[in-house]
Amino acid sequence: MEPPEPDAASEDAMDSFLEKFQSQPYRGRFREDRWEEEFEKIPLFMKKAPSEIDPKENPDLACLQSIIFDDERPPEEQAKTYKDEGNEYFKEKDYEKAVTSYTEGLKKKCADPDLNAVLYTNRAAAQYYLGNFRSALNDVTAARKLKPCHLKAIVRGALCHLELKNFAEAMNWCDEGLQIDAKEKKLLEMRIKADKLKRTEQRDIRKAKLKEKKEQNQNEALLQAIKARNIRLVSEATSEDEDSASEGLSTLLDGLSFENPYGARLSVDDQGRLSWPVLFLYPEYAQSDFISAFHEDSRFIDHLMVMFGETPSWDLEQKYCPDNLEVYFEDEDRAELYRVPPKSTLLQVLQHPRYLVKTLTPAFLVCVESSPFCRNYLRGRKVHQVK
């Protein structure tokens, strides 16, 4: 039986469709000037998959992804797919996405312990390159519970312990791995490195303990020297109990004896004599001088002669001369000043019952005798003469 011939209406409709179709360009065709971009849209030729797949923009890729990650497939197949995807990300050094893929594979809870051990070990490698050494160590530990002799997990665990400076643990992991493969090059190299670093660490600990002991002995010598001279420090002034005062003084020396705010330290010589860091303040010009080692037997005039042997740049009137300078210390509790004779030694002043040493750095005020500033500065204050 022959098919019926189309009627006139059908022929007109077909002609109309063909005319309309011919008048519109084909939107899906390849453009010669953009052929590389066109190929990038085809999953088979993509060099890199987009981070987020929009079904409208990439329908072919979305369809392919839905087939690959079909939840109806067995858990083992799904886990393997995520493992392969993670491996591809790892090759591209996209370690964060690799971690995500391996994690998704582990979420499938497949019954294959070997596959799960590989997922843990691979995720540990990605975490290692991200600098997440503890997370990586947790993963290789989990892998070894599933597969105790998994050499890759042991190698990566030893690496993590090295990064975390757990040198003894790194050596233990290496030893366990070498029992499986005595010729594993990475484990042999790591064990030598871990052993060397462990020895260095132990040596540094011994040095630190010896240094600490030496500092304690020095502080004890300073403590005894200060107590023998009846010099008052801040800690002594805040406690009436003798034992508490000694404890407070020892603590103060621990914190300040080697490095005070000015970069110097209180020290004792072979004859048991003290040298102090001393601060001279010039309130008229808001200037100061710092003497890093003022021997307790040195006189104030001796230091003034050195400091003002040449006129300082800030003394525009050239009036700061050793012969006309006055030195004071302040008793803050009483708001009183004490004038220090230039020929006094530092020890004589520090032993004064009203002098208090703060931060192990004695401080003194220096003014020009009978100058307008000095008279104004002393006005209204009670001034004592140190004998």
From TrEMBL:
This is Tetratricopeptide repeat domain 4. The gene is TTC4. Keywords: Coiled coil, Repeat, TPR repeat. TPR repeats lie at residues 79-112. It comes from Myotis lucifugus (Little brown bat). Residues 180-225 form a coiled coil. Belongs to the TTC4 family. Residues 270-358 form the Cns1/TTC4 wheel domain. One of its GO terms (cellular component) is cytosol. One of its GO terms (biological process) is innate immune response. SMART domains: TPR (SM00028). Gene3D superfamilies: Tetratricopeptide repeat domain (1.25.40.10). The lineage of its organism: Eukaryota, Metazoa, Chordata, Craniata, Vertebrata. One of its GO terms (molecular function) is Hsp70 protein binding. Transmembrane segments: none annotated. Pfam families: Wheel. InterPro entries: Csn1/TTC4_wheel (IPR044059), TPR-like_helical_dom_sf (IPR011990), TPR_rpt (IPR019734).
